[in-house]
Write a structure and sequence with these properties.
The structure holds 2 protein chains of 2 kinds. Chain A is built from 18 helices and 12 strands. Chain A is of the alpha+beta class. By secondary structure, chain B is α+β, with helices and mostly antiparallel strands. Classes of the chains: A alpha+beta, B alpha+beta.
Chain lengths: ~400, ~70
């Protein structure tokens, strides 16, 4: 929980864990933009920066000379750097560490997972039974990516609750609590070390076995590298997509015109999904300033932490006309939900496929639904933003 | 010369492409992804008139400014 003092001046004292930000970050960014291209804060060790324009965020993502990826979460206290390659890698190490992971997540491999994803979605919806009120985030959105990541990595889906617990402790609790961070990393390492040892004895067709066979410059990956990558995949591959599916369902539950249109024009879904990704982009990254520089007239001091808000880039009206509006038929939408530059989200093809399949199956079963009356939707705080609950009331096809 | 008579060629910068796959989804007749997920122009890249609007969408939606439509 956030027990820090409330923010009064967002331009010089921002805090992305403040309840105001968690409930509606868009209003904060819109208020800052006209006068403050880069907000700052001393609440985080060595100071933090929050660039708000698409152009500055783009420039930082491309500028590895001044901005390092070795810290990808803005934290109160800088924890000792423990890499989770390739997301925490800078060039030149980044290129080969990323290249080995590209083929398993390329579109043609992801396509092979579509039938399984559809089966998972259908069985989750069947498990709802004939209840007319249930939670779409808890019973649907959050379970889809866990099943798919377990399939890819060869893990037991029965451990899903453990993974969610790790994610929470890393991305939320760990932002303010260094000790929590170290403990959870230790637990993850222990779990994956056992998985690695099992694969060494009995290799399978899963990604962990694959990582044991690949080489960089003729050398197998070190155990430390493999552990880092596995930790990255389990942390990055689940609540991100869960948030995106949840935010899409929440949008449709609260915008009946868009729901009716998508049901009538299902071919619009891929375009709508890109707009949901733009408008409700879940992931905020970070950089560490490794060499002093200036952007939009604002100095970035060495050691400072940069909150790299792709969600804010996506809401910049200088880049996206009517940026504050969610237009499900927005045709020109080069959004940055999956990041920009060399760290483009490795799982973007997978996330997109999961979103499209999950929404297709949902709309087939529930073409008519809305948020339960009086329902309070809470959004997650920190690195990944998404609705943690989406209590819906569904109307059966035969009765509407 | 009207746009209809003008020939266009699609060009992808392999330096800039980061594998977002937006172009591959929007113009699958013109662009495909390779084993690593990077976009490759199919064939000689000449855009048939009936695919010009798809080619323009592919250009407009690339987050990395990696794809261009040049006059032939």
């Amino acid at each position: 929980m956030n027990d820090s003092k409330p923010v009064h001046d967002w331009s010089i004292d921002f805090d992305h864990l403040d309840p105001q930000w968690t409930s509606n970050p868009y209003a904060i960014w819109d208020a800052l933009r006209p006068t403050c291209p880069v907000a700052t804060s001393q609440r985080f060790e060595d100071g933090a920066y929050l660039p708000l324009s698409y152009n500055d965020i783009y420039a930082i993502a491309y500028d590895t000379e001044h901005f390092s990826s070795r810290r990808i979460i803005v934290r109160e206290q800088k924890v000792p750097i423990v890499g989770v390659p390739p997301i925490t890698s800078d060039p030149p190490e980044h290129t080969p560490a990323r290249r080995i992971l590209l083929p398993p997540f390329a579109p043609r491999e992801v396509q092979k997972l579509e039938p399984l994803t559809r089966d998972v979605c259908v069985s989750l919806l069947e498990a709802v039974g004939d209840r007319n009120e249930f939670d779409a985030a808890v019973e649907y959105a959050q379970s889809v990516p866990v099943h798919i990541m377990c399939q890819i990595m060869g893990l037991d889906v029965a451990d899903a609750e453990t993974f969610r617990d790790w994610i929470y402790r890393t991305n939320v609790e760990g932002v303010r609590n260094t000790q929590a961070n170290i403990i959870v990393r230790h637990e993850m390492n222990e779990y994956f070390l056992e998985q690695i040892n099992q694969r060494r004895a009995h290799p399978g067709a899963d990604l962990i076995s694959y990582l044991l066979t690949v080489e960089i410059e003729g050398q197998p990956l070190t155990e430390r590298h493999i552990l880092g990558t596995l930790v990255l995949l389990i942390i990055a591959g689940i609540d991100t997509t869960w948030s995106s599916i949840g935010a899409s369902i929440w949008h449709l539950a609260t915008h009946p015109d868009d729901l009716r249109r998508l049901v009538a024009e299902p071919e619009l879904l891929p375009t709508a999904v890109e707009e949901f990704l733009r408008a409700y982009a879940p992931v905020t990254m970070a950089r560490e300033v490794v060499k002093e520089t200036t952007l939009s007239g604002c100095p970035f001091k060495e050691g400072g932490q940069v909150l790299l808000s792709y969600p804010a880039a996506n809401r910049d009206p200088a880049k996206f006309p009517d940026a504050e509006k969610v237009l499900i038929d927005r045709a020109h939408n080069p959004h940055a939900a999956f990041g920009l530059g060399r760290h483009r989200c490795l799982g973007s093809n997978l996330a997109r496929m999961e979103m499209i399949v999950a929404l297709e199956e949902w709309l087939k079963r529930y073409p008519s639904f809305q948020l339960q009356e009086g329902a309070v939707v809470t959004w997650s705080e920190g690195t990944v933003r998404g609705p943690r609950t989406v209590p819906v009331k569904v109307y059966r096809q035969q009765t509407c | 010369m009207s746009e209809q008579d003008q020939q266009f060629v699609l060009f992808i910068s392999s330096e800039r492409c980061q594998g977002h796959s937006r172009c591959c989804s929007l113009a699958p007749e013109l662009v495909a992804s390779d084993d690593y997920g990077y976009a490759q122009v199919i064939g000689d890249g000449i855009v048939p008139a009936d695919l010009l609007s798809k080619a323009k969408l592919a250009v407009a939606n690339c987050p990395e400014f990696a794809i261009r439509l040049n006059r032939a």
